Amino acid sequence: MSIPFTNLDVFTHTRYLGNALAIIRPPTPTTLSQTQKLQISREFNLSEVVFLHLPESLDSNPKELTVDIFTSTAEIPFAGHPTIGTAILRAQLLGLEECQGINHQGRDFTTGEESQYPVVSIVNGMTFILVSLLNLVDLGRAVEIKNLNPSTYYVEHLDEGWRNGLCSTMYYVNMGEDGEGRRRYRTRMFETGAEDSGTGSASCALACYLVTKNPRNGGDEVKFGFEQGVEMGKRNEIFVDVMMQADGASVEKVVLSGEAVKYSDWLFLIFKSFVAYLISDTLKC
């Protein structure tokens, strides 16, 4: 059995920059088991892999599609660059249509132990420690800040009902406002000792945190631009627009956007041993 998949670089328009993504398109939702999906994700060794379940007929052009997002260790409820990359591939395969948004419940946490940094989530299971730094020199040394390594901050310190999933650290430096009124930040994100080149979920969490701490933004749409992955040589441009409720205390809508470029189409060969092999005779560049 062969299963098609596509490689993209997300949050960039230049191949081999941005954040790499693999989108696998099994013929039915039951073609692959959870165990097989996890094994395939480990084979790719990317930050996330998407399993996209398309309709039997591409002519049906549905507004809702089912996607499963996996890291090399588990399935996760949401991630930014897989969502953007999948939306762009969906548009290429099915055409542009208005798609349904993703509804999530989020909150600031009161941690079980004293913390001088905010711990924020907009999706249960995706939690971020947000650390403001003064300048790019400090940002370049962020990996040396051992006491904020996520591997030393366990989810059991979080509120009841939210002690699951990933807890990562997002470092950011305020770069001021650009000529279009967009607030610019340079960022780096670390999870269990590894750095991610472009993190849409963390960028959304940071944007929501920043606007909710400023009541002057009540009823406004606040635009952010996050530049991530520079220190890795994998520059990402991530855009987040946040619409506040009139009271300025809660978020009404979050829009994550960015570019993506496809660099290859491949096939998986799946055997009874569940070992996946790659073949490149369908490579398109």
UniProtKB/TrEMBL annotation:
InterPro entries: Phenazine_PhzF-like. One of its GO terms (cellular component) is cytoplasm. Pfam families: PhzC-PhzF (PF02567). GO terms for molecular function: isomerase activity. It comes from the Eukaryota. The active site is at E48. This is Phenazine biosynthesis protein.
